[in-house]
Amino acid sequence: KGPFCLELEPAYVAETATLVSGDVSPYCWTVFVLDDVRTEDLRQFRDLGLSLTATDAIRVVHAGLKPDYITALRGAGYRFTLDELIDLKWQGVSADYAVAMKQAGYDFAAKELIHLKWQGVSTQYASGMREAGYQLTAKELTDLKWQGVSTQYAAGMTGAGYGFTPKELID
């Protein structure tokens, strides 16, 4: 306990200062060192078009957000804000989950992906409903899942020629 002196390597300070926007406070420098904020990662974020402040960089590191996560989501066609990316990571939405939802034909917002993940809607379930002929909202997918409507039942009804709405499948 007590005061300490943090001596930063001048090359690290100089490069980091070019990779974050705005001033870097003594507190942020301390967190950068303690949390191993690397210039390589900051450079990759910049190369992805993210302009991070020092505080943003700390939030990114604490959320476990990595450049490859952003690259995977963008490759699938998502264009989330920094806050949405951080929320997705904090809430446990993997890049694989979001990409699989996109591949199944859905284009959910970040909050919807988080909701679906927390409600236990798997990518297999969403894909199965799509294959059964249903293009559903996040709420409809959640309602059907929680009411016990299986993908096999939905596909069977479609295959038998019924054009049930999601509500009718539940009823």
Commentary on this structure:
- This protein is mostly helical.
- Helices cover 62% and strands 0% of the residues.
- The chain is built from twelve helices and no strands.
- The longest helix has 10 residues, at 10-19.
- The protein is elongated and about 75 Å long.
- The model has no long low-confidence stretch (mean pLDDT 94).
Strand content: under 5%
Q: How many β-strands, per DSSP? A: 0
Largest beta-sheet details? none
Q: Termini, distance in Å?
A: 64 Å
Which parts are unreliable, with pLDDT below 50 for 5 consecutive residues or more? none
What overall form do the CA principal axes indicate? elongated
Q: What portion of residues is helical?
A: 55-70%
Kindly provide the radius of gyration, computed on alpha-carbon positions and rounded to a whole number of angstroms.
22 Å
Give the helix tally: 12
> What's the mean pLDDT score?
94
The helix/strand class is mainly alpha
Order of helices and strands: HHHHHHHHHHHH
